[in-house]
Amino acid sequence: MTQTNTPHRGLAFYLLAAFFGLFVVFLYGPMLMIFILSFQGPTGGLTFPMHGVSFHWFGDLWSSSRYGDLGGAFRRSLVLGGLSLVITAVVCLFAGLAFRHRFWGAGPIFYLAIVSLVVPGILLGLGISQLFQLLGIQLSWWLSGLGAHLSWTLPFGLLIMFAVLNRFDGSWEEAARDAGASAWQVLSYVTVPILFPGLIAVALFGFTLSYDEMPRSLLTVGGNNTLPIEISNMTTNVTTPALYAIGTVTSAVSFLVIAAAFVAIAIVQKRRARAQKG
Question: Where are the alpha helices (DSSP H) in 64-182?
Fold first, then answer.
């Protein structure tokens, strides 16, 4: 019986492997093409074959004025991503801890917190811009733009934190309290270190969702565009590999943030291992 099923199992394995390989190609193939074409020579175009290999278009991005305020947009997106990272991680941590206990109105508050996930981003951005104009507050990337981004990052972060806290054992906190630890000591020495990998995941979502967000930014950042808006503008008037170069740069930033998150998790795990051995 086992010998009869073995060929079928092998065939199923190869079919699944082929399907997964096609999925990986479909997912990363376009990105790989952009990476390769961004290293075209000075006379290169937007398609293959390549005409030389150089870093010309990366330097042209920052030295030429024909791409608009690309440097400023890049800095603004990094700042917005960093602010969203910190605020999302902190707010979702305390919100998740609060929802561990039943309180009056918990259900409606939860649904209000995540309702922005189903509202089209452009409509939510329009509502935020109208609210600021009604209050007489000037639209700016660091205020109204940040609020629009948080309406996107906070619900995702809250859902992730719920999943993390679902596996959290509260007996560790009870043991710390029984040992005489204060509420702040329990939070800083027990709760946060245990939840740290989950907080890193929340922070990563906060940064990447903000860094790439465009619909909620269009009507809320005022006169100073973020990087996704500048890239969208470039697609209408730029016909050089510089368009691919900015795609490579933005992808590299995302990969660096993810790598930094993994390094932080590895450092925390090593410290835990050393503490357990000690």
Answer: 70-98, 106-114, 121-135, 144-166, 171-178
